[in-house]
Amino acid sequence: MFSENVKGIQLSNSGLDSENGDELNLSLITSDNDFMLYKYISGDYDEIIRGIYGTADVFDFSNYIFEGRFFNSGDYKNKTHTAVIGSNMLSKTIKENEKCYFGYSQELFEVIGIFKQTDSNLDNCVYLNLTCMLEKNSLSGLYYVDASNEDTVSCVLSAVQDIIPQNSDYYFVDYESINEYGLDSMDNTLYIFAVLAALIHLILTTIFFITRSEYTISVQKLCGMTKKSMFIKYGRYSLILICVSFITIALGVNLFTKFLNDFFSMEQLVCGHFVILGLVLFTIGFLITVLTVFLSQKVNISSTLKGR
């Protein structure tokens, strides 16, 4: 999707807005060589949306078109509501008057070209005319510049700085590719924190459960309950909770998809996702059961029964 020369620039001022008079006049960006400019919109592995502008078809995207055409200078100059999409994105288009449209930000972009099946990220991409997008959408965001050599990219980035509104903040960034789960570094960090928080919560809950159940556990041990019996007993409880959790998650995602389909997409999930979910829940349940039995063995029968 990008060459090794790609570099990015982040416009971080959320107050930038074309409706307030701010603008990025892309035609003012000059360079001795042709280049492509992209605005990052979304990077999920099953839907890659970018705004696009170029002085030429630098990387021969036209060679991958099997129906229609790629953007030309007239599209950029006239700021047309046009899009070029991957073959897998046809199911997400709207058909009116024998034309296909892709909806974004409450606007319809006419699909003027469709990429052939390549079994790559190109199948899931959506390119929107960037000059059109910048007229009605916020100018802030992440932009990538790509060209056939590094010098051209550096030259274009310098030119971009010159056309950025004075009230904006910006900084340069390196390109980060999405991983197989469709998460960038920030999303990965949030995901890891969420997992750690959940695990810590489960551990604290388990410790609290054992502490509050010391008397019951002491009686059970006094009556001859072995470590194996405890593992089976608490393992059964964990298995029930795992099943309830699995069903709750599946129903929850299905429900949220109906009302928050920008964040949840049940139809994109396959059997493998649910298998992974089940394995993760089973692993957590197993570890919590082991922890429960381990803490149970630490309970002092004599002290507990004496009320100490």
Features:
308 residues; alpha+beta; eleven-stranded mixed sheet; 42% helix; 20% strand; elongated
In short, what is this structure?
The chain has 308 residues and is α+β, with helices and mostly antiparallel strands. It has helices at 73-78, 130-136, 150-163, 185-212, 214-222, 227-259, 271-297, 301-305, and strands spanning 7-11, 36-44, 47-54, 65-68, 82-85, 94-96, 99-104, 107-115, 125-129, 141-146, 170-173. Residues 179-183 have low confidence and may be disordered.
Distance between the termini: 67 Å
- Using only C-alpha atoms, the radius of gyration works out to 28 Å
Large-scale geometry: elongated
Give the DSSP E fraction (strand runs of 2 or more residues).
Answer: 15-25%
Secondary structure: number of strands? 11
Sheet/helix structural class: alpha+beta
What proportion of the residues is helical, as a percent range? 40-55%
Largest sheet: 11 strands, mixed
**What is the element string, with H for helices and E for strands?**
EEEEHEEEEEHEHEHHHHH
Indicate the low-confidence ranges by residue numbers: 179-183
Arithmetic mean of pLDDT:
80
State the helix count.
8
